[in-house]
Amino acid sequence: TTKDNSASSYIEKLSPLGLNKTIKGGMYRFQGDRDSVNNYICFGTNDKATCTGDKYKYMYRIIGIVKDATSGKSDDTLSGQIGALKIIKDYTIDGEHDFHSWPVKDPTPNIFFSQSLLKKQLNGEDTSKIYLDSSKYNYGTSWTNKMISKKWYDGADVCGNTGDTLDLYNIEHGISANCNGDKLKPSTESYKVALLVKSDFSWAYEAATSSERKKTWINGIKTGAMASCEWTMSRYKSGTIYYVDSVCGDLSWVGSQFRSEQYARPVFYLDKSTIIKSGTGSESDPFIIQV
User: Fold this and answer.
1) Contact 282, 59 (CB under 8 A)
2) First and final CA of the chain: distance in angstroms?
3) How distant, in Å, are the alpha carbons of 11, 26, 89, 134, 197 from that of 29?
4) pLDDT 10s digits, 123-171
5) Which of 60, 114, 125, 172 qualifies as a cystine partner to 156, CB 3.0-4.6 A?
6) How many angstroms separate the CA atoms of 218 and 232, rounded?
7) Which pairing describes strands 157-158 and 276-278: parallel, antiparallel, or unpaired?
8) Alpha-carbon torsion, ordered 72, 73, 79, 80, to 10 deg
9) How far apart are CA 223 and CA 263, in angstroms?
């Protein structure tokens, strides 16, 4: 037999704190309180001391492991990537960023993130604010080549409370109709870096035992101000005007106009061939990727 050295196999065998091995939205997900989830992973360096010494640049958290990419059940744009890791930066990137120029009236379902200014900034297409290729985040091609280029869904148009995270996920991924009867489609172009969606956040909180929602592990808005907010890719509608949901440090949700200035944390997938060479997933002993 062939030994499986993949990152997914490493993590699943280790069963770190917080990993739920029940498929939710196509993934095994890390769930629970902030201090009891061992999902820290270094990206951009394979040296633990370098990573823990500069958490702002190198420290990420694992949202989940892709286990199902079946159309109608999960994100079918990940076909062929069973075992890929979905990760989010633990700290926000420099400064605040506008999502787009203005609110949009009656847009087509999938124009939100794929055509936004922030998308260009995150993926290095806007030279004024580049994430992947800036001097601060120049991880190099040996790292950026591990990131999956895919077509992303742009989040849900949510009217009111869906009441269930799976319902929200299905709306966000075009599996079921949203409140206006529209179904989302993936973006028409492929890109590597996106943002959090509401269902990822909700599932991370699902198993939290604390009565304080601010202890949810995915609440990593580390900007020094609890009132600070960060962009998601989930849309929000008021009348005929569409906005984008942002989540704030106290975990309140805000429907923000595209021209608003908010913080951002990159989200992306690591290719299924990625190998983890060491680590237990704790903040002091994060998972280290082999390069």
Assistant:
1) no
2) 24
3) 11, 9, 16, 31, 14
4) 877 766 656 656 667 788 899 899 999 988 877 766 655 567 888 888 8
5) 172
6) 12
7) unpaired
8) -150
9) 8
